[in-house]
Every structure is written in C-alpha cells, then in structure tokens.
Amino acid sequence: MKVIHLSAECYPIAKIGGLGDVAGALPKYLNQAGVEAVVVMPFYERKFVQQNEFDTVFRANTVMGDRPFYFEILKEKTGKLGFDLYIIKIPGLLDRTEVYGYDDDIERFVAFQLAFLDWMLWSGEKTDVIHCHDHQTGLVPFLLYYSYRYKSLSNIRTVFTIHNGQYHGAFNWQRSYYLPDIDPWKTGLLDWKNGINPLASAVRCADAFTTVSPSYLKELSISSNGLEFLFELEKSRGTGIINGIDTDVWNPKTDPMITQKYTPKTVAVKKIKNKQLLCKEFGLAYDKPLFTFIGRLVVEKGADLLPEIFRLMLSDPENPVSILVLGSGDAETELELSALKEAFPGQYNALIGYDEELAHRIYAGADFILMPSRVEPCGLNQLYALRYGTIPVVNSTGGLKDTVIDISETGGYGIRCPEPTADAVFTGIKRAIELFKNTVELQLLYRKIMALDFSWNRSAQEYIHLYQNLKPIS
Ligand code: ADP
C-alpha cells in the first residue's frame, strides 16, 4: 500500500508546530510498519532545502484561474529522513522564508494543491491513499472526486486529518475561478456560510477524517470557529487518533541537543545538571522548582493567562519558583511576558522567538511544563516533557485530557486543572510545588513518566487500519 502525506509543514524541513512534527514522524513509522509512505510539501527558502541535495523529477506549466504558473517537483536525494520527501517549488509563490502569514496565503496553498494534482495527473505517479493534513491541503478530496480535470484520479482514496480546527483557510466565492471546472451539482460541498471553506469541504469529501485525539473530536462540535454544526453532523464518520512522538528525535539518552544525556536510571542525577546549566544560562536560581512554558503565544494555548499566573507565582513568598518561557505569537502577550523580566530578575526569564535546540534543553532541564490551553487538539509538548522526566501541569482539555492522568488518580503522573483560568492553574501549580518538596516521590515519578510509551508505533497501526478500510462515501 502506498500513502502520500500532503502537508504544509514537515520537520526538519519546516516546522511551526505539531503538524510539522507529525508529518516528519508518522510517515517514517508507517514505512517501518510496511506501508510505503512519502511526504509532499511546499518548497520554502529554508535551511534544509539550501543544505541538502534534490533531484528535479518533474516540471510543468499550469494555471490557477487566469494566472499561469510554473512548478517543479524536487525529490530529496538520500531518503535519510526515513521516507521519500518531495517538495513543490512554485517560484514567486511558495519559495519564501516563512511558511504562513502572507497576504496571498490562499493563492499559495491553492496553487500548491493544483500543482500536486497536476503532477499526479501528468506524471503517472501512483498511490492508493492521499492523506491530507489541515486546511492548506483540504481542497484535494473535493478536486479529486468532483472536478472534471482530475476525474481520472478519483479511484484514489483520501484521509483528512485535523491538527487545528480553528483555522479553515476560508475564502470568498469570487475567487472560485482559481479552481478547475467542477461538477455544478457538487459546489455545495465546498461551501460553508457562503464561502469556500477548505476544512469543511475536506471533512465532507474525504473518505475518512481524523482528529489528533478522541476528546478533540468531541470538542469540535462545541467549539470550532463556526463549524460546530458540521462536526455535530459528521462526527460519527470521524476517528480520534492520538499523536505519537518520534522517539529517535526525542530521546534524552541520545539527544545531541542536550548536554547531560540520561535514562530513567540516571535521571535523578543528570536532570539536575541540565537544570543547573539552563538556569545559569538564563540567570535563574536552580534550587527552586523550574516551571516552563514552550509554545505559540496565542489565546488557544492560554498564553494570555500567563502574565497573571506568573505574577501570582512570583509574588508568593511561601513558594519561591523559577520560570522560563520560550515562545512567540500575539504581540501584546509577547510584550507583557518580556516586561516581567525586569520586574522579577533572577526568578523569571523569557526568550521571545522560536528555538528548536533550546526547546530540547528546556524539556531536559525543567521540572514542570505549564499548558493552560483552552484548546489543545493533541498537544505534543506534554508528551515530549514526559519523555524527558518533566511533569506536565495542564488544563483538562482535548489531547491533554487523553494523555495526562492526574496524580490523585490510580496510575496518575501529571497535574490537571479543571478550567483555563489563572486561579485554577495557580492551584495546580501549588500542588506541583508540594510534589517538588517530596524528593523521593519526585524521583520515582521521573522514572515512571520517562517509561511511558507515547511512541508512534501504536498510533501508526491505527492509521494503517484506517487506510485498509477506506471506502468511497456512498
Ligand atoms: P501546536 O501545533 O498547536 O503549536 P503542539 O503541542 O502540537 O502545538 O506542538 C508544538 C511543537 O512546537 C512542539 O514540538 C514544541 O516543542 C514546538 N514549539 C512551539 N513553540 C516553540 C518555540 N518557540 N521554540 C521551539 N519549539 C517550539
């Protein structure tokens, strides 16, 4: 069986968040399990493409509406990623430094999808399944089954995975001429609230859709930025499959990005050394519990709550703590989090930006990771943290609910807060600090959480089962 993963991100080529991690790991584990899995993604002007060699396997001219464009398909030469990687280069549209955030993102990703389908059509490239990820690839199922141009490809089965249901990539019907001629009886399958909505269309047109955790599938009917009714109607067709982690990349025993490597046996001694180095680098006291937040500074992640949570923590003389933040996002939150540095020197520090290596060092050195998310489709940070013996303090939502069991429950290993408010999270933090005081219990917990199995092996099997049972929607 062959599966093409179509994604806007893929680690280590271009990663903004969890989508990149999944697209860079799941195909590798599928290959190991005997499914031929490849990745197709856009060509961005980034380090990986500049530093690696590619063969041009296809080139063509095509059109998006009245706009002609040229594209090339490049294939990574060595296969060293554990899967074949194809990148689609569209000069003037995709070949930029950033993945998202341009005024013409709609045009960029429509062109990406058209180039992909044209390549499939004209090159004779074969596949059994196209697995689309998030709205940037959400028009593909519709175009495969209901456009005249790609009709000959309609025997290919499709899966659509929602990594983030808050973003839909919607655009106005006036731009429908970007798409090739479509069956006029089927245009409704593109529409949601009088616009073309790629996420909604993919949910309705793909043979199967998945979310990255079972709880998130349920929550989309309650909150999905206007698609609640759609998810209520379609949820019985959906499957929640929890993400795994790439245990080759995220392995404290071998991780080249951390100074002191460790295993569950050596964690008690080595983790503190990683913490000392990290605290020294950021001017923090290492004898206090070290709390961290890593991630996008957006409302979904509860990042707007952080300044208040941190003020509560840093003003509590009974429970001194150290705090380190790594993230970027909403300008106002960035400013507030930066301002705290001056107010609490030696206790608090923040690096506003994106730094993959530092993230690894923080997972290795921190005691607790805070995730006060309002929405969390799966969440990978808590899984990486557990693997590095860092205890998650999370709001009980989405994938966090599915992967973190509270220490008060049988088999528990993390701290769950009942709601995303500063007070509820601060209560959870106080529980964490109590835990920190009990060194024996803490060290046992380190070992326990490092041994938990969140690898891709299990989840990859669930995807294989899904691929094997795909049938066209009747
Ligand atoms: P989302 O995809 O919603 O952003 P996930 O928890 O699924 O959230 O994935 C986040 C991924 O991005 C993790 O691998 C995390 O370590 C990484 N990450 C997020 N922000 C940063 C940052 N500022 N620097 C380094 N890594 C980051």
Briefly characterize the structure.
By secondary structure, this protein is of the alpha/beta class. The chain has 2 domains: 2-246 and 457-468, 3-Layer(aba) Sandwich (Rossmann fold); 267-454, Rossmann fold (3-Layer(aba) Sandwich), CATH 3.40.50.2000. The protein has helices at 18-32, 47-51, 105-123, 140-146, 198-205, 214-220, 228-234, 267-281, 306-314, 331-343, 356-365, 381-387, 398-403, 422-437, 439-450, 456-468; strands spanning 2-6, 36-42, 54-64, 67-76, 84-89, 129-133, 157-162, 171-172, 191-192, 195-196, 208-211, 238-240, 290-297, 322-329, 348-352, 368-371, 391-395, 415-417.
What does it look like?
Helix 9 (306-314) links the parallel strand 13 (290-297) and strand 14. Helix content is 36%, strand content 20%. The protein has helices at residues 18-32, 47-51, 105-123, 140-146, 198-205, 214-220, 228-234, 267-281, 306-314, 331-343, 356-365, 381-387, 398-403, 422-437, 439-450, 456-468; strands at 2-6, 36-42, 54-64, 67-76, 84-89, 129-133, 157-162, 171-172, 191-192, 195-196, 208-211, 238-240, 290-297, 322-329, 348-352, 368-371, 391-395, 415-417. It contains 16 helices and 18 strands. A 9-stranded mixed sheet has the order 3-4-5-2-1-6-7-11-12, sandwiched between helices. It has 2 domains: 2-246 and 457-468, Rossmann fold; 267-454, Rossmann fold. The mean pLDDT is 97. By secondary structure, the chain is α/β, with parallel strands linked by helices. Helix 1 (18-32) packs across helix 16. Adenosine-5'-diphosphate binds at residues 17-19, 21, 294-296, 326-328, 354-356, 359, 378-381.
